[in-house]
Amino acid sequence: MSSLNKINPMIAAAAAVAAVAAASFASHPSATYAAQANAAVVSTAKTSLGTIIVNSNGRTLYLFKKDRNGKSACSGQCAAFWPPLITSAKPRVTGGAKASLIGTTRRADGRLQVTYNHHPLYTFVKDTKAGQTNGEGVNAYGAVWDAMSPAGATIAKQTSPPAGGGGGY
User: What is the Cα–Cα distance from 124 to 133, expressed in whole angstroms?
Assistant: First the structure.
């Protein structure tokens, strides 16, 4: 057998190994990619309330004023209406959200909830589209729910000035 005939099977075997490795990589992305895919994202959006923090779908993120010391006071029926922002990896920020303000807290059920400026974050089931702020100022489950600014402060609904101007003269 010539040396050329011995090389062809070796090349074919090497090509087969490379193809199997490539297929395996394609079907099992790297751990870094998988971790990023499971990481919650906090971003910003402009709404009728001004610039607020939102999740990766553009849904408003709220804080619950009953929460204390970075721990959630919302579970059961409360969490059904105000779903906590859950993550299984280190949360990420985009837009004008600040990485220095993001964190997590462990819920009673063991899941990690994303926090912003030490406040656990929630969405609201009646916000069905990006940019809606239907939960702003709602008093439910024992306290008020507020949207948050990128600086980590609560945002209050802006009230309109009284009709007629009220110039005071």
Answer: 9
Report whether 130 contacts 46 (CB < 8 A).
Answer: no
Q: What is the pLDDT of residues 151-166, one digit of tens each?
A: 999 987 765 544 554 4
Query: What are the structure tokens assigned to 1, written together?
Result: 């057998």
Q: Which amino acid is at 6?
A: K
**Helices of type H across the chain:** 3-27, 31-37, 77-81
Q: CA 87, CA 96: separation in Å to the nearest integer? A: 20
Query: What b/e sequence results for 145-159 when a residue is b if at least 16 CB atoms lie within 10 Å of its CB, and e otherwise?
Result: bbbbbbebebbeeee
The dihedral formed by the CA atoms of 127, 133, 134 and 135, expressed in degrees to the nearest 10:
100
- In this prediction, residue 49 has a pLDDT band, given cuts at 50, 70 and 90, of very high
Distance between CA atoms of 146 and 156, rounded to whole angstroms?
7
DSSP-derived secondary structure letter, 101: G
pLDDT of residue 158: 60
Predicted local distance difference test score (pLDDT) of residue 39? 93
pLDDT confidence of residue 38:
84
pTM of the model: 0.73
What distance in Å separates the CA atoms of residue 83 and residue 80, rounded to the nearest whole number? 6
